[in-house]
Amino acid sequence: MRKLFLLISLTISLTSFGQETTDDLSKVFRINALSPGLEFELPISEKSTIAINPGIGIHGSYMHLEYDYLVSGVTYYISPFLDLSYKKIYNRSKRQVKGKNLNFNSGNYWGLRLLTNFKEIKSKNIYRIDDISFDFGPTWGIQRAYGKMHLLFDVGPVYYFDTKGNSGFFPIMLQLNLGFNAKKW
User: Fold this and answer.
1) I need a labelling partner for 159 at 20 to 30 A (CA). Which of 97, 113, 152, 173 fits?
2) Which domain of life is it from (predicted)?
3) Quick check: 126 and 70 in contact, CB under 8 A?
4) For residue 104, what are the domain limits?
5) In the 8-state DSSP scheme, what is residue 27?
6) Domain count for the chain
7) How many CB atoms lie under 10 A from the CB of residue 8?
8) Using the 8-state DSSP alphabet, how is residue 128 labeled?
9) Maximum Cα–Cα distance for the chain, whole Å?
10) Alpha carbon 31 to its chain's center
11) What pTM value is reported for the model?
12) Which residues, in sequence order, are bridge partners of residue 107?
């Protein structure tokens, strides 16, 4: 119940924070397919957005967050997640000069990402120490709109941790998302 209240409070506060919409960036509601989720992207300045994406996805294992006596074979788990991203889109003016698509906040960006994974629904060769884990780090990425279709790719290092104090560093975290831009306003 506390987690649901926290999620609702965060969504409402970020929505009210993003009310200062500019002509360049827009509020976007997306339905993502690769890691199924519902994403809200809200502008917070002329070149920056915050994206909130709750969903269910497939996650890999990190050393220190799982019991390490099962080390062979395929390891994964499927769990609900909450993905929060800050994006500073830095090439919109160049894209506009070249006549490229700016719809649905298309552009290259750098930012920060916080991914929260909750209790797994299904797992293969993984026994997690804690039901909640976090991945946090800087990212560089691209997002493009092709009509109503959405493509996002980002990469960056990640610091991972759980609520029991286990943590570590992984040099690269990748995200690839395909989706549908359902609404822009």
Assistant:
1) 152
2) Bacteria
3) yes
4) 25-184
5) -
6) 1
7) 10
8) B
9) 56
10) 13
11) 0.81
12) 143
- Which residues does residue 61 pair with via DSSP β-bridges, in sequence order? none
Tell me whether residue 61 is in a domain: yes
Place of tokens 């998302």: 177
Closest of 180, 64, 73 to residue 133, by C-alpha: 64
> 3-state SS of 36-99?
CEEEEEEECCCCEEEEEEEEEEEECCCCCCECCCCCCCCCEEEEEEEEEEEEEECCHHHHHHCC
What residues of the chain score a pLDDT lower than 50? 1, 4-8, 12, 14-23, 69
In a domain, 44, yes or no: yes
Q: Are 107 and 126 in contact (CB under 8 A)?
A: no
Q: 87 φ, ψ to 5°?
A: -125, 125
Whether residue 58 lies inside any domain: the answer is yes
152 part of a folded domain = yes
pLDDT at residue 126 in the model = 78
Classify residue 22 by its DSSP letter.
-
- Residue range 131-176, pLDDT digits in tens: 999 999 999 999 999 999 999 999 999 999 999 999 999 999 999 9
Token pair of 85 as six digits: 């991203």
Q: Which residues have a Cβ under 8 Å from the Cβ of 99 and sit 6 or more positions away?
A: none
pLDDT for res 18:
42
Is the CB of residue 31 less than 8 Å from the CB of residue 38? yes
